[in-house]
Specification:
single chain; six-stranded mixed sheet; 19 strands; globular
Length: 212
């Protein structure tokens, strides 16, 4: 997991959506992997069909072998039907994920069988609803945006990256009007450096972003 979203944040639970799972193909194999299953990824809705049941039971190899005759069915894994995925250029995201979606821990052990480790890892299992904040103030590390912090203007909005799904880039304006697809507002930027002999876990540029 890359650290895209830093500890300083401010939001209300009333602005967190707990209805959508991350697309199955985007789930991380392990909590140490990097990808669209990270926390701090900006996502958009890919399936919003509320006519479907909230949860259905699926056949999922994550459970292991479920093909034995006495089990009766292989459809045993509960999954949320509504889906989000990392937002791409031109899209207006629903919000930012607050937890990662991962199958295994750093040792390759399934989080499915260790719920305590799952909570400690701040992870959702594949198919579980991932919390998505739609409003608030968030601090993004340089893993969550393109370029350098100096590329972002304080007070200006941002837009989805042209190169990497789920990341942001600076918004551009034409004749003092912002282009389509912009959202949020940059409240400030900064950079962290090592202090003394200890390496800073959050080393590098960061952006403080307001989502409204």
């Amino acid at each position: 997991m890359s650290i895209r979203i830093l500890p300083f944040r401010q939001y209300s639970d009333n602005d967190v959506v707990n209805l959508y799972k991350l697309d199955t193909n985007s789930a991380l194999d392990a909590t140490t992997d990097v990808g669209s299953g990270d926390a701090g990824v900006f996502v958009h809705i890919t399936n919003g069909n509320f006519n479907a049941d909230p949860i259905t039971y699926q056949t999922n190899t994550y459970l292991g072998d479920t093909s034995y005759p006495f089990l009766g069915t292989t459809e045993m894994y509960p999954e949320v039907n509504l889906t989000v995925n990392a937002a791409t250029s031109g899209l207006h995201p629903l919000g930012i994920t607050l937890m990662q979606t991962a199958k295994n821990d750093e040792n390759g052990e399934k989080l499915l069988y260790n719920p305590v480790k799952q909570v400690e890892s701040q992870a959702c299992l594949p198919g579980q609803a991932v919390p998505i904040a739609t409003k608030g103030i968030f601090t993004l590390s340089d893993s969550g945006f393109d370029g350098n912090a100096s590329d972002y203007s304080v007070g200006a909005p941002v837009q989805m990256s042209y190169t990497t799904a789920g990341k942001i880039t600076g918004a551009t304006s034409t004749r003092h009007h912002w282009t389509s697809g912009h959202f949020g507002k940059v409240l400030g930027t900064g950079s962290r450096s090592n202090q003394g002999p200890t390496s800073d876990q959050f080393l590098g540029d960061y952006i403080v972003l307001s989502l409204t």
